[in-house]
Amino acid sequence: MGNQQSGSCCDGLIDSEVLTSREEPLTPEEETKFMSNMVNGCDTEIVFADGTSMPCSLMYDLAEDCLHMVVEDKRRIVALNDIYEILEADSVSGLSNMEKAMIINPCIVAFRLKSTRKAILLRFRDAKESQGFYHFLKDVIQDNEDKEGSDSAANMTEDDTQVPSQTVII
């Protein structure tokens, strides 16, 4: 199972209409089907900076609140609280030209980890799976931001919450 050149059912479908359709919410049936696939294991491909890819099994672990990614019998665990950004055409700093070109593919979802600042690109078999994962990540990132906001608010002291006076008395 070596590297294979990137080729997908969706390579010819790269247009702005397809990409904006990613933002559209899934129907309840589509969302249920997607989450069932994620919990039971979803076959994708991990895409590398040079455009090659390898089969990747992706599974959402409800108990541990993480993703299990298995590539060639090597398992990587990605904590959901480590995911902080979905990479799109306007957020490509630090990516190679090849990666920049790939993230506009509607079957590829790219996201960045907070701990390493590294990007992970996953290619799904169809645009609906990609759309489901995109919405899943958006929810994860929103939850992470909400938790981070509530944690920092809880850690503030009374002095931190007081707004300093804008009036200077001489």
From TrEMBL:
Signal sequence residues: none
Phylogenetic classification of the source organism: Eukaryota, Sar, Alveolata, Apicomplexa, Aconoidasida
Protein name: PH-like domain containing protein
Domain ISP3 C-terminal, residue spans: 30-139
InterPro entries xrefs: ISP3_C, PH-like_dom_sf
Record region (Disordered): 146-170
Organism (species): Babesia gibsoni
